[in-house]
Structure to design on (650 residues):
């Protein structure tokens, strides 16, 4: 077991992680993460499944959008309805996309004005991301509602440890796609600041599949703008102020399901467009004890979200959400507790005031607000040098439907003689009914303010091991995890044929089971090959029918190679298996609510060549084999796309 690690040492290592990651994209036992216990912690001590996508990996694979960054992650089914900017859902371990909590630096992003409260993963870029931490499995015991299937936490780029740095890139590619990024950071004395500006536009391609007779080849363009900054100032040795600001604007054209000669077909429509914008800011105070074993942070801020749809320039639907929040969070690494090994304690209190306003074509206008108080605590400690336990508990008290308590307990045991880590965890979770699900009404929907939260419980057990081969230490790493989850009181629309009206009700239940397996071989420092396989059995517990858009089998093979010091190559071969979906025939007419959608493969290839001290040329090819496929039935996947760019490294 490693020696006692102070909070200051953990925080310092975390802040430099993007710099250190430039040497390798492999997650090691020394990786420090913050999402697992809401405090800096060694990844090897966590009982939950947590993946890290660092800045070096994002750059090596030439990934600009959040969808691109997440697509090859095991256990995730990332489904986008068209080109960059289009709506994208992420199903973690078979759970619904609304059961995934999205965070930016620990701040909740899920859209409270959306019909089910889900976050649209298709509207974001990752140029300002220092790293992305992904928890597969429930974590409501730390983050509350939505963290049923998992948590995706985007951690921003920070100022360097000292001095200043500048980075940037510019690229051009297929479909007249242009991407530009510029940013940097400075740390001098008591002051630090990091800022990034990013822009992307594309003419896109026709999202209406060519097999459908109503397709005309009309492309669906998109555009993104992201501005972000974070920094702080040390008032005294113990007290600092910090600030965070992020503005993201995105827009994309989309096609209709109510077009064609009949007016009821999937068809091209150049007049349909959506705009998805968000603004996030926070201000805070940070107190650090001189011994650096305790840190307390108090911050307040707001998240504003708007989604507008347009037809021929006229607004048809408006969704506006506003979340004011106050967070008091604490991290403590107590010293001198002889009975425990390297304990980490986190606890805090949160307040949220949420407001949703909608004005849509088919529903009555809605304006409703709700307050929420929460408190959480987590403890991670070694009972022996080989045996770590982690426990967390949280209480959420909603203004409308009362309190909800969730908890998580897990353990890790290291078999040093076999270089193996065994782990297991059990957790409960919940998804609060969205304001729209409770209060929206129309001619066909009656409001139901008495909806209960959806509740989940999940168990997982797994192992990771490493073997030395041909004189190379830990040349082969492999592991597997099995999970079993249930989600009860799922909210579904129930129609009453006698009254000609329906209502959202707690009537559904889902059974989710699966296995995730990986193996990674690193024969030399310059090369690695990783294989990830995911088996998902996600069914409706009442009918036994598979849930839509969850492939039973999926896998990804990723290889990296540095043939010479100045050149790097990365290739990813991804397979998505057959799955059920709402399907449409070749004339664009609705065919089935649970039809079979074929499997598909895609191959992405990226090469990076260092041409000067901090300057690289980047060549990327997505869908190298030009596979014709539909990630969502009735929506075409992107054809082969070649991109060329220049990057300036920090």
């Amino acid at each position: 077991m490693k020696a006692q690690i102070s909070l200051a040492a953990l925080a310092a290592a975390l802040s430099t992680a993007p710099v250190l990651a430039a040497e390798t994209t492999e997650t090691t036992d020394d990786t420090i993460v913050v999402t697992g216990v809401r405090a800096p912690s060694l990844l090897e001590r966590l009982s939950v499944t947590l993946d890290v996508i660092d800045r070096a990996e994002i750059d090596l694979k030439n990934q600009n959008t959040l969808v691109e960054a997440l697509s090859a992650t095991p256990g995730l089914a990332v489904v986008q309805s068209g080109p960059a900017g289009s709506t994208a859902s992420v199903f973690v371990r078979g759970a619904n996309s609304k059961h995934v909590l999205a965070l930016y630096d620990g701040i909740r992003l899920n859209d409270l004005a959306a019909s089910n409260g889900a976050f649209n993963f298709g509207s974001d870029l990752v140029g300002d991301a220092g790293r992305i931490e992904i928890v597969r499995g429930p974590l409501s015991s730390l983050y509350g509602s939505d963290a049923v299937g998992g948590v995706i936490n985007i951690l921003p780029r920070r100022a360097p440890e000292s001095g200043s740095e500048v980075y940037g890139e510019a690229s051009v590619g297929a479909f007249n796609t242009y991407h530009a990024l510029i940013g940097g950071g400075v740390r001098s004395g008591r002051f630090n600041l990091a800022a990034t500006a990013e822009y992307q536009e594309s003419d896109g391609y026709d999202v209406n599949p060519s097999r459908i007779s109503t397709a005309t080849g009309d492309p669906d363009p998109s555009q993104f703008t992201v501005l972000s900054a974070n920094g702080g100032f040390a008032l005294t040795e113990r007290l600092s102020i910090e600030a965070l600001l992020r503005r993201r604007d995105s827009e994309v054209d989309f096609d209709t399901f109510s077009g064609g000669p009949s007016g009821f077909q999937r068809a091209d429509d150049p007049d349909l467009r959506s705009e998805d914008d968000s603004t996030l800011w926070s201000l805070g105070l940070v107190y650090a004890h001189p011994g650096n074993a305790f840190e307390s942070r108090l911050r307040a801020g707001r998240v504003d979200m708007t989604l507008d749809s347009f037809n021929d320039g006229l607004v048809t639907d408006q969704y506006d959400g506003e979340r004011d929040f106050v967070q008091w969070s604490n991290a403590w690494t107590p010293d001198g507790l002889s009975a425990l090994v390297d304990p980490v304690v986190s606890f805090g209190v949160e307040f949220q005031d949420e407001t949703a306003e909608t004005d849509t074509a088919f529903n009555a206008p809605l304006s409703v607000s709700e307050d929420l108080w929460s408190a959480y605590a987590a403890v991670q400690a070694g009972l022996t040098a080989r045996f770590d336990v982690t426990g967390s508990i949280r209480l959420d008290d909603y203004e409308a439907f009362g309190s909800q308590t969730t908890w998580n307990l897990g353990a890790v045991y290291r078999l040093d003689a076999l270089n193996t880590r065994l782990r297991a965890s059990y957790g409960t979770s919940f998804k609060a009914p969205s304001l729209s699900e409770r209060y929206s009404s129309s001619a066909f929907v009656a409001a139901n303010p008495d909806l209960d939260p959806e509740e989940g419980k999940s168990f997982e057990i797994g192992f990771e091991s490493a073997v030395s081969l041909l004189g190379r230490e830990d040349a082969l790493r492999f592991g597997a995890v099995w999970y079993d989850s249930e989600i009860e009181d799922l909210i579904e629309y129930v129609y009453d044929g006698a009254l000609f009206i329906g209502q959202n009700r707690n009537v559904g239940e889902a059974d989710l089971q699966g296995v995730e397996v990986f193996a990674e071989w690193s024969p030399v420092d310059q090369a690695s090959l990783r294989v990830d396989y995911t088996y998902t059995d996600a069914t409706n517990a009442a009918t036994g029918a598979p849930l839509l858009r969850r492939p039973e089998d999926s896998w990804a093979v990723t290889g990296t190679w540095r043939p010479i010091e100045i050149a790097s190559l990365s290739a990813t071969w991804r397979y998505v298996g057959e799955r059920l979906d709402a399907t449409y025939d070749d004339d664009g007419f609705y065919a089935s609510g649970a039809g079979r959608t074929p499997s598909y493969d895609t191959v992405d290839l990226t090469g990076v060549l260092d041409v000067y001290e901090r300057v690289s040329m980047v060549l990327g090819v997505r869908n190298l084999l030009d596979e014709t496929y539909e990630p969502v039935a009735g929506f075409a996947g992107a054809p082969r796309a070649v991109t060329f760019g220049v990057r300036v490294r920090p």
Observations:
- The longest strand covers residues 472-496.
- Residues 7-648 form a domain with the Maltoporin; Chain A fold (CATH 2.40.170.20).
- The chain has six helices and 36 strands.
